[in-house]
Amino acid sequence: MDCIFCKIAKGEITSHKVYEDEDVIAFHDLDPKAPTHVLIIPKKHIESAMDIDQHNSALIGRIYEVAVKLAVQLGLDKGFRIVNNCGEDGGQTVQHIHFHLLGGRSMAWPPG
Ligand code: AMP
Ligand code: ZN
After folding, report:
1. Which of 21, 38, 43, 103 is placed for a possible disulfide with 9 were both Cys, Cβ 3.0 to 4.6 Å?
2. Shortest-distance atom of ligand 1 to CA 95
3. Cα–Cα distance for residue pair 28/31, rounded to 1 Å
4. pTM score
5. pLDDT tens digits, residue range 48-96?
6. Rounded CA gap, 36 and 17, in Å?
């Protein structure tokens, strides 16, 4: 399968990794939208939030745990945002589920 995030998870494409365990990997976004912009993904290919179910929801919970640990490690003590874009209207451009950890500036609400 030609999935860029699967390739990053397997180490076939280089990334600036900030976290890795058996199931989860986190790396800096190539095109950061905030002073801190990290992507947290499952190593396993899950296409989008539409595919979260009883079999993989614990893994999604672990991703949130990792995101919050990274937020603390990266010094986002004033707050941060965790975002999942799902589908075309959600703005998803990579079809491998991922969670954006954004921080280092004040975030607008509602998002555009
Ligand atoms: P989304 O638009 O929610 O699907 O987010 C995809 C994100 O992946 C974008 O913020 C891109 O900048 C980022 N991205 C795409 N390719 C890479 C890559 N090779 N390494 C790091 N980030 C990437
Ligand atoms: Zn994938």
Report:
1. 43
2. 4
3. 9
4. 0.98
5. 999 999 999 999 999 999 999 999 999 999 999 999 999 999 999 999 9
6. 13
